[in-house]
């Protein structure tokens, strides 16, 4: 009832974007709220999701799929859409990195709007498909191999015509951070810690090689996203990376963006508070 009232109120004010945000945030909780969203849309704004873009397509697919959540048919349909979005991350010319001179100081704005649309659409589909599928079938079987190919490109050991661009890599890294947050919300700390360890190794690699600033910042943001899984590991990795950026800034115009620096400082404060609390506990 509340959901329907919220959507109806948004429609009365002509605010379709806010209504979609409400639906997205509810669907992000998993398939168990699907009926609530579907009934609210049917009663208050039936054509709300009839708009272009990956996020709207993902929501349409979820709401219109008349099968049992997490059933074979459910997984098959949504995983196929997720795979198509992942292909778009690799192939779409609109998945880009903004020029660091124009947006590099904002950190998060390094990704184009199209790239973020794909990240949020994939985050939603993975929330519906569950953590086991996300971790085992999506991250391990699809994302890690793409990042491994990019790593081989960097050291010149990848043959053939396969090419993974820096904008695609930055988008994948931010996506992994968002998906890891999903795992943390489901108390899957061990799996997320494994992901964090992979990201830390990537961040260390980017700080010692000639890697675009957008990729480095994306890796750093994702390490910060997953820091609750192992705070000390994340903080050390971020500090090491920040020091490498400061050292190179005398030769280039790049240092740690303010947004990332604020996240590192916030993690420092949290770790200090935890240490003080543990020290004072008898």
Automatic annotation (TrEMBL):
Span of domain Little elongation complex subunit 1 C-terminal:
75-265
Q: InterPro entries annotated for this entry?
A: ICE1_C (IPR057881)
State the Pfam families in the record. ICE1_C
Protein name, UniProt field: Little elongation complex subunit 1 C-terminal domain-containing protein
């Amino acid at each position: 009832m509340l959901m329907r009232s919220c959507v109806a109120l948004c429609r009365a004010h002509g605010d379709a974007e806010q209504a979609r945000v409400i639906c997205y945030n509810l669907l992000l909780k998993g398939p168990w709220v699907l009926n609530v969203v579907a009934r609210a849309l049917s009663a208050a704004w039936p054509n709300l999701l009839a708009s272009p873009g990956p996020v709207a397509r993902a929501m349409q697919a979820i709401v219109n799929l008349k099968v049992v959540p997490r059933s074979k048919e459910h997984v098959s349909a949504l995983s196929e859409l997720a795979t198509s979005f992942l292909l778009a991350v690799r192939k779409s010319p609109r998945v880009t990195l903004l020029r660091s001179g124009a947006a590099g100081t904002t950190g998060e704005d390094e990704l184009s709007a199209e790239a973020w649309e794909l990240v949020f659409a994939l985050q939603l589909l993975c929330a519906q498909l569950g953590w086991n599928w996300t971790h085992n079938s999506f991250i391990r079987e699809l994302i890690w191999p793409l990042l491994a190919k990019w790593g081989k490109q960097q050291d010149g050991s990848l043959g053939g015509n396969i090419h993974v661009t820096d904008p695609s890599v930055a988008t994948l890294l931010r996506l992994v951070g968002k998906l890891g947050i999903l795992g943390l919300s489901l108390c899957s700390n061990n799996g997320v810690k494994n992901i964090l360890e992979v990201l830390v190794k990537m961040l260390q690699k980017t700080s010692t090689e000639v890697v675009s600033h957008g990729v480095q910042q994306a890796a750093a943001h994702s390490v910060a996203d997953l820091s609750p899984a192992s705070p000390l590991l994340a903080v050390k990795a971020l500090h090491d990376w920040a020091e490498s950026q400061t050292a190179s800034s005398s030769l280039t115009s790049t240092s740690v963006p303010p947004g990332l620096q604020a996240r590192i400082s916030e993690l420092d404060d949290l770790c200090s508070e935890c240490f003080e609390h543990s020290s004072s506990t008898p």
